[in-house]
Amino acid sequence: MPLEDSLMNMQWQAWFWLALTLGAYVFSRWLYRRSGRYLLSPLLLVPALLLAVALPLHTSYAEYSSLTHWLMALLGPATVAFAVPIWQQRAMLARYWPALLVGMLVGSAVAIVSSWGLANALALDASVRLSLLPRSISTPFALPMAADLGGVPGLTAVFVMVTGVFGAACGGLLLKWLPLRSSLARGALFGAGAHAAGASRAHEVGREEGSVAGLVMVLMGLLNLAAAPLLVRLL
Amino acid sequence: MKCLSLRFVRLCGELAVLFGLYAAGCLMVRWSGWPLPGGVIGLAFLLLAFASGRVSPQALKLGAGLLLSEMLLFFIPALMSLLDYGELVREDGWRILLVIGTSTLLVMLSTALAVELLCRWRTR
């Protein structure tokens, strides 16, 4: 019964990848909390571990994601959950919304124009170029925006992650030599440049920075997504 | 022990509410044809519920806290789509990294400076 055998095998594989993903995540979170080194963050360590196992086995994404796509389905309710911190920060939002709004408009424009311009200058393919545009907003917003623009959501997911890791790491360095006096600007730097990874890094800088970064990240996502139909017409 | 299981039931209930809001958002998107993700509509529903004063954010603290603090886990499977783009990474990898790195630095610089300038100008 070769067919049954291979079916069994596939199921076994799917459970293996789910277990490995969860196990590696729990382990790396524990390690990161203990050591506090950014290189050990689950954002870097888990994909590195998974790739180290998947590449020698010649696993395809379809094989990897047959069960793990349920984890991605949790991004939807996680987006809804952002209502809680936004509501709790409403006083700050009411007070500083003009500065934050201008910052987000500037940041979004710079993100889109510089990605587009650089990708063009380096002669990247149209599908890669389009997938690069929603890079600096967080995944639950970036994936539908990539689809709207005609990019490849799978690629965008990768670019978003690279952006987050790079931005969270470099944001700390930027803070050192930029003369930023307000916690608002420090938080916006992380939230606009490096979405969720930046927001978690900003929490380490300070409480206000963290909540500003979280807020900016959600609002940037909304702003970009709302602008996507307009962008499609411009491109 | 009893306390722990109560907490667990409560957590499941809160997660179910967040899921329900997300599902309602998705239905709304399908029904209306708005170009927004279902999660964003669900987020708007929840903000409206808070604003009406009938629901307190405290009521969803456990579930929302869990989803937000473990959000990195939900991204990781998407990152594994790298497996299908091996050739792209080998050929264009360094150019893509250059675009991402430069553009991210520019975004962080411009956003932070814009907010900082506006804040200084307002407090002057």
Please describe what this structure looks like:
The complex is a heterodimer of chains A (235) and B (124). Chain A is built from eleven helices and no strands. Chain A has 235 residues and is an all-alpha fold. Chain A folds into two domains: 2-73; 80-234, no CATH class. Chain A is globular, with a radius of gyration of 19 Å. Chain B has 124 residues and is mainly alpha-helical. Chain B folds into two domains: 1-69, no CATH class; 85-124. Chain B contains five helices and no strands. Chain B has helices at 2-32, 38-52, 61-69, 71-79, 86-123. The longest helix of chain B is centred in the C-terminal third of the chain and has 38 residues, at 86-123. The N and C termini of chain B lie far apart (57 Å). At the A-B interface, helix 1, helix 2, helix 3, helix 4 and helix 5 of A face helix 1, helix 2, helix 3, helix 4 and helix 5 of B.
Number of strands of chain B: 0
- Mean pLDDT over all positions of chain A: 84
Class inferred from helices and paired strands of chain B: mainly alpha
Terminal-residue CA separation of chain B: 57 Å
How many DSSP helices of chain A? Answer: 11
- Name the shape of chain A in a single word: globular
What percent strand of chain A? Answer: under 5%
Structural class of chain A: mainly alpha
Q: What portion of the residues of chain B fall into strands of 2 or more residues?
A: under 5%
Multimerization state: heterodimer
Nearest-integer average pLDDT of chain B? 87
Q: Describe the sheet with the most strands of chain B.
A: none
Q: Give helix and strand order of chain A, one letter per element, not per position.
A: HHHHHHHHHHH
What is the count of distinct domains of chain A?
Answer: 2
> What is the distance, rounded to the nearest whole angstrom, between the alpha carbons of the first and last residues of chain A?
54 Å
